[in-house]
């Protein structure tokens, strides 16, 4: 009988459970994917370049697990709030608290188990897709990878089983401790709105100061280190709550007292709807703002690290391609690159020295990286080393040695004029340095030529060559590209959880709002106006945490200035992606809410 009642309860709230399902399936799928990447031993041992990426995925699974735990508790509390009237009715009919607790336990655990199974299956497909992306997008050669990992599946099932076990115990305990009358009337009892201007102003000041202090701590983590992160976390969470609890109440009060705004269409009704449960909304909006910041921050930082790779490679290696003994290279393959810069320096090599023509460097100075107090300059600025300068400065000659092959670097570099160079009775070779219009689009052709150059001219391994840009790019790619995938998938997972929590909070009060919307329809209010009021009300609930969350991210990116050259580069891409996805959830919430409160009996 308990199983039948539990299944009936889930069926009766199927739309609400689907919202919960979407968040749980996404979380378990991404958790499995991270674990499969980080626990596949054959995959790890045969692909040493992925060591950093594996650590990133392991860290991502831990972070996702922590957020998922909070999400499950929060989302389930909303589901219990929507079902507590049903439980109260069962108690009135004679059901004992122990049986109610068992039914809640079955419902919670059943939903979690099914979502985890579906999510794990989806995670296998996701892991296979990410493997393909790692090969194509990161230009990595990956072997021995399998999307199915028994270890990852076991970890995922055990982890989520424990989460839902805790959630089930928590839900059952919370419901059975409440009186029947409290269960029946709790969701219909409004939180009293106390208008105390002085207290509201004080809250606003403390909240803004807390946020400002948290932002300041994040702006200089090199100085404050781990203490800065801890303090910023506390002050930003506190400031977020205080700003919402004071600013929203104040703004609503001002708007309701302004007749020109409040008396226009159904604005006064919309403001009253928001004021009705404003205390509950304050907690939810604060949590939503923090989740929004986590989601958008993960996506922004992940894409930011990907954007950094070509910038860092360019700052270290001024030339897209270095060709030693260029006289032996097929000129047609080089011309196919359509170089924007192509210069050749003549060389003659003896047993103890390498000779160059000084005038060639005077006509076309050698480019070298610029170094400042922060390391390599990332603005695309290079030093131009002329032949006269190179002849006099032995340290500058080390930049030229970087473009030579390993076997030449121990020899003395000598600069002579063209006449003296011609008089040296040894075979002439050439060093050719090339730049192209778009490095990334020409990557495949550049890599083919670079590998051929490395094979033909030196025994030095590719990973030891930090002057050929394609090899530098590959090194940074292996180190940082994992952040792009972790950030993207964590951002999507956090967005799903954030939207689910907003949906649950809004939809949990929808049944109680039916009466108010029915009364408005009976007195002749047009359905179009009611839908417009719904869009405005829910728009405020989505927009408020979104704006504050974006502010958190903009200040939070300061934390990554020590790791990234420009964390604000191409910021419109992650913001645009996230706002588009966020808008989809907003439209879905409006549609679900309107179908509940405006449905015909």
Low-confidence runs: 45-49
Distance between the termini: 30 Å
The total of beta strands comes to 9
Task: Decide which structural class fits the backbone.
Answer: alpha+beta
Largest sheet: 5 strands, mixed
Name the helicity range: over 70%
Q: Any idea what the radius of gyration is?
A: 32 Å
Q: What is the averaged pLDDT score?
A: 77
Q: What global shape is seen?
A: elongated
Summarize the structure.
The protein is built from 22 helices and nine strands. The chain is α+β, with helices and mostly antiparallel strands.
Structure description:
There is one protein chain. The protein is of the alpha+beta class. The protein has helices at about 1-10, 15-40, 40-45, 50-90, 95-135, 150-175, 180-185, 195-220, 220-255, 260, 265-275, 280-315, 330-335, 360-365, 385-390, 395-400, 420-425, 445-455, 470-510, 510-520, 525-555, 570-595; strands spanning about 320-325, 340-350, 355, 365-370, 370, 375, 380-385, 410-415, 430-435. The protein has a 5-stranded mixed beta sheet. Strands 4-7 form a two-stranded antiparallel ribbon. Strands 5-6 form a two-stranded antiparallel sheet. A hairpin with a 2-residue loop joins β5 and β6.
List the keywords.
about 600 residues; alpha+beta; two-stranded antiparallel sheet; 9 strands
């Amino acid at each position: 009988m308990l199983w039948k009642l539990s299944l009936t309860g889930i069926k009766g709230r199927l739309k609400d459970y689907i919202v919960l399902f979407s968040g749980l399936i996404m979380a378990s799928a991404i958790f499995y994917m991270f674990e499969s990447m980080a626990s596949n031993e054959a995959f790890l041992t045969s692909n040493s370049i992925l060591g950093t990426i594996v650590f990133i995925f392991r860290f991502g699974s831990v972070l996702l697990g922590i957020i998922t735990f909070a999400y499950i508790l929060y989302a389930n509390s909303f589901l219990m709030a929507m079902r507590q009237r049903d439980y109260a009715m069962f108690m009135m009919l004679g059901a004992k608290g122990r049986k109610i607790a068992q039914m809640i336990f079955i419902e919670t655990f059943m939903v979690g188990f099914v979502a985890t199974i579906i999510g794990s299956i989806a995670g296998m497909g996701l892991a296979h897709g990410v493997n393909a992306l790692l090969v194509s997008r990161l230009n990595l050669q990956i072997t021995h990878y399998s999307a199915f990992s028994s270890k990852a599946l076991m970890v995922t099932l055990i982890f989520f089983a424990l989460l839902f076990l805790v959630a089930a115990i928590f839900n059952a305990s919370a419901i059975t401790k409440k009186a029947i009358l409290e269960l029946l009337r709790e969701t219909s009892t409004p939180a009293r709105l106390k208008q105390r201007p002085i207290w509201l102003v004080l809250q606003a000041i403390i909240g803004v100061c807390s946020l400002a202090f948290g932002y300041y701590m994040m702006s200089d983590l090199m100085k404050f280190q781990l203490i800065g992160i801890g303090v910023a976390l506390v002050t930003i969470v506190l400031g977020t709550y205080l700003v919402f609890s004071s600013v929203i109440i104040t703004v609503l009060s001002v708007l309701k007292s302004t007749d020109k705004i409040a008396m226009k269409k159904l604005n006064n009704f919309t403001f009253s709807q928001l004021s009705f449960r404003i205390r509950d909304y304050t907690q939810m909006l604060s949590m939503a703002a923090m989740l929004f910041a986590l989601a958008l921050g993960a996506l922004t930082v992940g894409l930011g690290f990907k954007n950094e790779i070509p910038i860092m490679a360019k700052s270290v290696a001024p030339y897209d391609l270095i060709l030693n003994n260029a006289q032996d290279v097929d000129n047609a393959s080089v011309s196919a690159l359509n170089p924007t810069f192509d210069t050749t320096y003549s060389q003659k090599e003896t047993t103890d020295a390498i000779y160059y023509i000084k005038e060639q460097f005077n006509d076309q100075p050698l480019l070298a990286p610029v170094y400042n107090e922060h390391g390599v300059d990332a603005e695309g600025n290079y030093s131009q080393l002329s032949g006269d300068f190179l002849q006099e400065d032995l340290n500058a000659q080390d930049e030229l040695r970087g473009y030579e092959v390993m076997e030449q670097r121990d020899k003395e570099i000598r600069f002579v004029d063209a006449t003296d160079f011609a008089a040296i009775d040894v075979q002439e070779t050439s060093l050719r340095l090339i730049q192209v219009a778009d490095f990334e689009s020409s990557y495949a052709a550049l890599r083919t030529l670079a590998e051929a150059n490395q094979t033909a001219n030196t025994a030095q391994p590719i990973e030891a060559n930090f002057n050929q840009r394609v090899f530098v790019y590959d090194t940074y790619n292996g180190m940082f590209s994992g952040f792009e995938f972790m950030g993207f998938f964590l951002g999507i997972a956090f967005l799903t959880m954030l939207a689910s929590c907003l949906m649950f909070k809004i939809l949990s009060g929808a049944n109680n709002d039916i009466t108010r919307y029915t009364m408005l329809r009976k007195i002749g209010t047009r359905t179009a106006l009611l839908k417009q009021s719904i869009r405005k009300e829910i728009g405020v609930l989505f927009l408020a945490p979104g704006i504050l969350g974006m502010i958190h991210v903009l200040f939070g990116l300061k934390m990554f200035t020590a790791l990234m050259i420009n964390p604000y580069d191409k910021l419109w891409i992650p913001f645009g992606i996230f706002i588009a996805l966020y808008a989809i959830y907003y439209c879905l919430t409006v549609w679900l809410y309107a179908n509940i409160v405006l449905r015909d009996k």
